[in-house]
Design brief:
- By secondary structure, this protein is of the alpha+beta class.
- Among the domains are: 147-369, Neuraminidase, CATH 2.120.10; 474-741, 3-Layer(aba) Sandwich (Rossmann fold).
- The chain contains 13 helices and 38 strands.
- The strands form 9 sheets. Strands 31-32-34-33-35-36-37-38 form an 8-stranded mixed sheet, sandwiched between helices. A 4-stranded antiparallel sheet has the order 1-2-3-4, with no helix packed on it.
- Strand 37, helix 12 (678-689) and strand 38 (695-700) form a beta-alpha-beta unit.
C-alpha cells in the first residue's frame, strides 16, 4: 500500500475556478484558490495564459483575493473584483498586489506556497447545481468589521503595472460587466439611504436587528435589511457613477443570485430581478416567490423592458452577437426537480410587456443546465452550454431558433468532468477534473467541439503537478446496480491506488452522499476521497433518485418525499459493493453534507448496516426548521405550510424515527448556518444521546453552510476519519482491542 496522503497536504492544493477568454480568443484568464495555513486563509489568485498552451500561465495578483475576471472589448485590459486596500495613486489608497517581483523571487514564492491544485467542486459548499441556495459573504449586510469591500480593478495588460481601482462603493460591488465601448462598466451595488446607513452603522456596533422582511435571513448574509441593490453605469476612467433607478434587485433569491448584469453590443443592459409591482400597480412581496425575470434597460436608465412573464427562475443572461436577442437559463420556480433549460428571447421594443414569449432551445434534451453553467453564443445562430448528463457535466450545442440540441465535446472523456466554462473569439476554455489527474484549465477550438480529438485539447495549466507526483491517487469507475424497486441507479466508486477490481480484497467503505438533492456526482478530484483511498478505504458516491443529470422523471421521483427513496438507493449501492467483494460488510460507514446529511440521518433510522455515520450540516426536523432557515419558500412549495400539513412535515423528518437509531453518530454544524441551522444538529445529538447511542457533536462557531478556511476543512476530514476508525472493528487500540469493542 502506498504511503497515505498526509492531512496537511491539503494546504498545497490550488483549485482553478472562474475562466474568461479574451475577445480575440488568444488568451485565457482564470482564478485559482490557494490554501494558506498561516494565516488560516483561502486566497484566490488571478492568472493569464495563452490559449494555444505555448507557455505557462502568468500570475497577476498575489496578496489579495481576485474573482470574476472580464476582458475589455479591445482585450487590452482585464477587470476583476477584489477586496484590496484602496489605490493611493487615485486618491483611494494603494493596491497591495504590486507585480514587481523578479523571476527568482516569484519562483521562490511559488515553491514556498506549492504549485498544486485541488478541484473539489466545493461539494461541501453546494446545495444545488441549478443555482439553488448558496449564500455568500459579499455585500450582504452588516459584517461588523473594517475590511475593504470588493471593488472593480483593472490590469492594463498593454502597459503593465499594478491593478488600478475603478469603483469606490461604500458597500462594495457585487457584479459587473464591460460596456461595448470599453469606456464604461455596469456594476451592481447596494445603495443605502441615510436612514438605512444609520441602521447599518448601529448594527456594526452591536445594535438590534430590526426587520419586517419575510426573507429575514440568508445563509452567508445573516439577517437581511431593506437596502436596495441597483445597477450603476460607471466611467472606467474617472469612476463617476450613474444609478439606474429602475434597475434594482428584489426577491428572496436576490442575496444569492444578484442582478447578473450583461451589457450587449446594442448598448443595452440585461439583468435579472423581481418586480416590486406585479402585475403593474399592485404591490407584491418579492420575498414570497422564487421566480426571477429577465429585464433589459438602456444605459441612461430609460426604456426598461421585461422579457419574461414571472413563470421562470431566470439567470445568466447572455446577449447575441448582434444584440437583438438574449439567451438565459430558466427553471421552474416551484419545482426545482425539473430541468433548468436554455431560453432565447427577443429584445423587441414593440412587443407588449411580458409577452415576448421566450423559446426553450434545450427542452427536448431533458437535461438541466449545470451548476456554474451559462449559455454562450458561438455565432449568431448557435450557442454552447454545459449541462448535467448521466452523472457528468458536458457541453451541448444549441440552435437559437429551434429546440434541436446536440451533445459535443466527447474528447473530455467519461472519466473527468467539466467545471467552469467560457467561450468567445472561437476559443472554448474550461476546467476539467478527474480523480486521478486533479483539475486544470484547458482550451479547444470552438469549431472543433463536435469532432475534437484528445490531441486538439490544449492544457493551459499544471497547477497540481507536485501533489500528484508526491501522492498516488485513487482509481475510479462507474457502476450500475438495482435498488430494491428494481430500478437502475448509477454511482461513482473511488478505489485505493493498489486495489485490484479483478481480485478484490474487501475494504472498509465510505458512502459519501451528495447534497442538493438537485445535484449529482461525477468523476472529479476531491481531497477527502483521495485522503481516504490512500488509507485503504473504498468510497462510493451514489446518484440516488432525485439527483439531476438523469432526466426529469428520475429527479422528480423525490418530489414531495424525504428519506425512503434516496436511502434505499444508497443502501442498495453499498450492498452491491459487498456482493462484488469490494466492501467489507463489517466496516461500512456513511456520511453526507447538507442534503447528504439529511439522507445520512434517514439511513440510520432504517438500517444498522453501517458501523458509524456522520450527518453533516443537515436538517432533521422539517417542522421546527420552518422559518428558522432561509428556505421557507422551498419547503412551502414542496410540502405546503407546516400548520396545514403537520403529518407531512413530521413523516418526512428523521427526528420522528430517532428511537430507531443505534448507529454511532458524529454530527457537525456551522454556528452561523442559516440553511441548516445548528439547532437541528443539537436536536439530533440530544435525541440519540438520551438513548445511550454513542454520539459526538462538532460545531464550527463562525461557519455558514459551507466548509471555509483550510483549518476547518482539514479538521472536518480528521474528525470524520477518527470517528470511522473509532468504530471500526478492525482498528485496534494500544491494548489490542478494537475501538468498537471498548
Amino acid at each position: 500500500m502506498p504511503d497515505p496522503i498526509p492531512l496537511d497536504a491539503y494546504h498545497d492544493l490550488r483549485m482553478p475556478n472562474d475562466v474568461a477568454v479574451s475577445p480575440d480568443g488568444e488568451r485565457v484568464a482564470f482564478v485559482a484558490d490557494e490554501m494558506h495555513p498561516d494565516p488560516d486563509e483561502r486566497h484566490s489568485a488571478l492568472y493569464v495564459a495563452p490559449a494555444d498552451g505555448s507557455r505557462d500561465p502568468h500570475r497577476l495578483s498575489r496578496a489579495s483575493d481576485a474573482r470574476a475576471p472580464a476582458w475589455s472589448p479591445d482585450g487590452e485590459r482585464l477587470a476583476f473584483l477584489a477586496a484590496r486596500e484602496a489605490d493611493l495613486d487615485r486618491g483611494r489608497g494603494r493596491g497591495e498586489d504590486v507585480d514587481e517581483m523578479t523571476d527568482e523571487e516569484q519562483h521562490a514564492e511559488e515553491e514556498a506556497n506549492g504549485d498544486e491544485n485541488d478541484d473539489e467542486n466545493d461539494d461541501e459548499n453546494d446545495d444545488d447545481e441549478n443555482g439553488g441556495p448558496n449564500g455568500d459573504d459579499e455585500n450582504g449586510g452588516p459584517n461588523g468589521d473594517d475590511e475593504p469591500k470588493p471593488q472593480v480593478w483593472t490590469f492594463d495588460l498593454a502597459l503593465g503595472g499594478d491593478a488600478r481601482q475603478v469603483t469606490d462603493r461604500e458597500e462594495g460591488v457585487r457584479e459587473f460587466d464591460w460596456g461595448p465601448d470599453g469606456e464604461r462598466i455596469v456594476v451592481s451595488a447596494r445603495d443605502p439611504t441615510d436612514e438605512e446607513r444609520e441602521y447599518l452603522d448601529a448594527r456594526e456596533e452591536g445594535g438590534p436587528v430590526e426587520t419586517e422582511r419575510l426573507q429575514h435571513k440568508f445563509d452567508g448574509v445573516g439577517f437581511t435589511d431593506t437596502v436596495t441593490t441597483y445597477l450603476f453605469v460607471v466611467d472606467a476612467a474617472t469612476g463617476e457613477a450613474t444609478r439606474l433607478d429602475d434597475a434594482y434587485g428584489a426577491g428572496s433569491s436576490e442575496p444569492i443570485m444578484g442582478l447578473q448584469p450583461a451589457w450587449g453590443s446594442n448598448d443595452r443592459i440585461a439583468y435579472v430581478s423581481v418586480d416590486r409591482e406585479d402585475p403593474p400597480g399592485e404591490a407584491t412581496d418579492p420575498d414570497d416567490t422564487l421566480a426571477a425575470d429577465v429585464y433589459t434597460i438602456a444605459p441612461d436608465g430609460t426604456d426598461r423592458r421585461r422579457l419574461t412573464d414571472g413563470t421562470l427562475r431566470c439567470s445568466s443572461p447572455e446577449w447575441s452577437p448582434s444584440g437583438d436577442r438574449v439567451a438565459f437559463a430558466g427553471g421552474n420556480p416551484t419545482n426545482w426537480y425539473q430541468p433548468t433549460e436554455v431560453y432565447v428571447a427577443a429584445d423587441d421594443a414593440d412587443a407588449a410587456d411580458g409577452h415576448r414569449e421566450p423559446t426553450s432551445v434545450s427542452g427536448s434534451l431533458d437535461r438541466t443546465v449545470a451548476r456554474f453553467g451559462a449559455p454562450r453564443w458561438r455565432d449568431a445562430d448557435t450557442l454552447v452550454c454545459p449541462v448535467a448528463d448521466e452523472g457528468w457535466t458536458r457541453l451541448v450545442e444549441l440552435h437559437a431558433d429551434r429546440d434541436d440540441p446536440t451533445r459535443v465535446f466527447d474528447s473530455q472523456g467519461r472519466d473527468r468532468t467539466l467545471g467552469r466554462f467560457d467561450m468567445t473569439g472561437g476559443t472554448v476554455a474550461c476546467t476539467l477534473s478527474s480523480p486521478q489527474g486533479g483539475s486544470d484549465v484547458y482550451a479547444v477550438d470552438a469549431d472543433a467541439l463536435a469532432d475534437a480529438e484528445e490531441a486538439d485539447l490544449r492544457r493551459l495549466s499544471l497547477l497540481n503537478e507536485s501533489f500528484l507526483t508526491a501522492h498516488e491517487q485513487p482509481t475510479s469507475e462507474r457502476i450500475t446496480f438495482e435498488n430494491s424497486d428494481g430500478e437502475s441507479v448509477e454511482a461513482v466508486v473511488y478505489r485505493p491506488p493498489d486495489f485490484d477490481p479483478d481480485d478484490p480484497e474487501p475494504a472498509p467503505t465510505v458512502a459519501a452522499i451528495h447534497g442538493g438533492p438537485m445535484s449529482y456526482d461525477a468523476p472529479t478530484f476531491h481531497f477527502p476521497h483521495a485522503y481516504w483511498c490512500s488509507r485503504g478505504y473504498v468510497v462510493i458516491r451514489v446518484n440516488y433518485r432525485g439527483s439531476t443529470s438523469y432526466g426529469s422523471e428520475f429527479a422528480e421521483a423525490l418530489n414531495g418525499s424525504r428519506g425512503e427513496l434516496e436511502s434505499d438507493d444508497v443502501i442498495s449501492g453499498v450492498e452491491h459493493l459487498v456482493d462484488r467483494g469490494y466492501a467489507d460488510p463489517d466496516r461500512l460507514f456513511v456520511t453526507g453534507f447538507s442534503y447528504g446529511g439529511i439522507t445520512t440521518a434517514h439511513i440510520v433510522t432504517r438500517t444498522d448496516l453501517f458501523a458509524a455515520a456522520a450527518p453533516e450540516h443537515g436538517i432533521y426536523d422539517l417542522y421546527s426548521t420552518f422559518g428558522t432557515d432561509d428556505n421557507h419558500n422551498w419547503h412551502q412549495w414542496e410540502f405546503g405550510l407546516p400548520w396545514e400539513n403537520v403529518d407531512a412535515y413530521r413523516d418526512h423528518s428523521s427526528i420522528t424515527d430517532a428511537g430507531e437509531i443505534d448507529t454511532p453518530l458524529l454530527i457537525t454544524a456551522g454556528g452561523k448556518d442559516w440553511r441548516c441551522p445548528p439547532s437541528q444538529a443539537e436536536q439530533l445529538y440530544v435525541s440519540v444521546k438520551k438513548q445511550g447511542v454513542p454520539a459526538r457533536l462538532v460545531v464550527y462557531p463562525e461557519e455558514h453552510h459551507n466548509v471555509g478556511d483550510p483549518e476547518r476543512a482539514t479538521h472536518r476530514v480528521r474528525e470524520l476519519t477518527e470517528w470511522f476508525e473509532r468504530h471500526d472493528p478492525a482498528v485496534e487500540t494500544a491494548d489490542g482491542e478494537s475501538e468498537a469493542d471498548t
